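Quick illustration, no need to memorize.
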Amino acid sequence: MHIDTTESAFYVHAMPDEVSTCIKLGLRRQKSGLYRTDNWSLASRFSYYADRDAARALNRWTPRSNEAPTVPMSPAPVGLSYMPHQEVGIRFWLQHQRVLIADSPRVGKSPQAIGGCESLRLNANYRRFLVISPTAGGVMLPTWQREIRTWTGGLHAPIINSGSGRNKVLVDQSHDGYYVINYDILQRFLPELLQWLSATESAIIIDEAHLIKNPEAQRSQACKQLIEAADRACFLTGTPAPNSLKESFYLFNMVSEEHFDSWQYHVENLERYSHLFMIR
């Protein structure tokens, strides 16, 4: 297969065993035997096979719906500084509505996520931020609480908890700032969290985002609703595809459903739309 372009259309040169794919996707056969479309979305299905000129044309036509007005990056709190790769990650997020930052473990993804939130809070009037994280033996949530306090210069992030007495922390609809919650109780607090996020400009951080790889799981469905309620979302994981590439599909689909709408084109689009992901 090969794809090239003119000023107004894309042309696919299909081998005999590829003709059925062209027909299925709705490309029109020309007298020359080529398959033609002036629809960018259809042409993008074949982007992996595009020659240089066609690839450039597709890049010019690429929808940028995931891009957002760039927000200036705020400096780190007094006495702290971001490492160069963390500055890159923060600026990367501030250019998009949804991003995946997939740095290796223990290189500082949480300061990037919090740094982006602080830039949104201080420079774009965002008021509410939700961090979703696994419990991991009871240490992850307090760690996020400590990281938020450190990288915001002292803000407290309550950990939502349905316990009893002094340990009980519910969603206060008047609260501006940060909340931290674990995956296991998302469903229980989903209505309150949706209302809280939707009330004003908000952002969400999904830690260990590979845990929402199964679209049938309740926590994956809950996360999807919360992501759609928030204005921006940052997905963090050091293992975007723990066991196979297929496991990353639903995660990438949530980052950009427009670009990763079916598994059939997932592999080809990983390279084409790599500008949406921070994998180092």
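Strands lie at 2-5, 10-13, 28-29, 35-37, 98-101, 128-133, 177-182, 202-206, 232-236, 277-278.
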